[in-house]
Amino acid sequence: xxxxxxxxxxxxxxxxxxxxxxxxxxxxxxxxxxxxxxxxxxxxxxxxxxxxxxxxxxxxxxxxxxxxxxxxxxxxxxxxxxxxxxxxxxxxxxxxxxxxxxxxxxxxxxxxxxxxxxxxxxxxxxxxxxxxxxxxxxxxxxxxxxxxxxxxxxxxxxxxxxxxxxxxxxxxxxxxxxxxxxxxxxxxxxxxxxxxxxxxxxxxxxxxxxxxxxxxxxxxxxxxxxxxxxxxxxxxxxxxxxxxxxxxxxxxxxxxxxxxxxxxxxxxxxxxxxxxxxxxxxxxxxxxxxxxxxxxxxxxxxxxxxxx
Length: 308
Description:
Elements: H1 5-11, E1 13-18, H2 25-41, E2 45-50, H3 55-62, E3 66-69, H4 80-88, H5 97-104, H6 106-115, E4 123-126, H7 132-138, E5 143-147, E6 157-159, H8 162-173, E7 179-183, E8 187-195, E9 198-199, E10 203-206, H9 214-218, E11 224-226, H10 233-249, E12 255-263, E13 268-274, H11 284-291, H12 296-305
Parallel strand pairs: 1-2, 1-3
Antiparallel strand pairs: 4-7, 5-6, 5-7, 8-9, 8-10, 8-12, 10-11, 12-13
């Protein structure tokens, strides 16, 4: 579709920053391509930019009026890019520098939630000095090992023995110098998307995998997404309020997604906040937006509006 005068006047030239060099590059490429197509359909003037090390040298030549960030993981979602764009005076979508950095860091976001009294699974920092059996016992005998700064479930492993815990740490440490073990919660997994002032309908995730891993997220066709999620009105309201409180507590803004576990008693526990969630055909925010009555194109324009 040709560029619309109304869209040109409202948004100007929009750079979609995607791809990048993180371990989530493949997902970012898919997200970026989907968003670029949507903006074209809406008549927005789009400049697709596959982000490399020379981004800051490239940007002035593109004469952008704003940036829509579709980078996932370190380098795009952790505040470093946001700081660079802020320094250049270029408006961008989503959370700012501090919130992006804090939300990307699972260890420090969990420490923060613990400090302000928000529920999150018990956890421990892993390193070469860790007493593997003592750590496992202190967390209930079964844990999820996670790199602190990766998304898309990369480097995550379930462990239920000291040898498995050590091996999971070694695997995660190849991706990140900061690794945590988190108490394994037996129960349902939910996700709640935030779009401006609106909390979108929550989604319940069901998978036959050991957990909602990379394959279950992006490759499997048997992952089940329940939206409406099946909670009663009171529990749904509690979940949405917890997600909003967690999002706000980290100073996040614009849009994002909050991941939550419920134990068998129905108590909710915060896992993490994603400040730039996926926008692929398997992604959760577009599903929640559709349930709320937004088309994919509507959703993309709402995200772009967060750059104002």
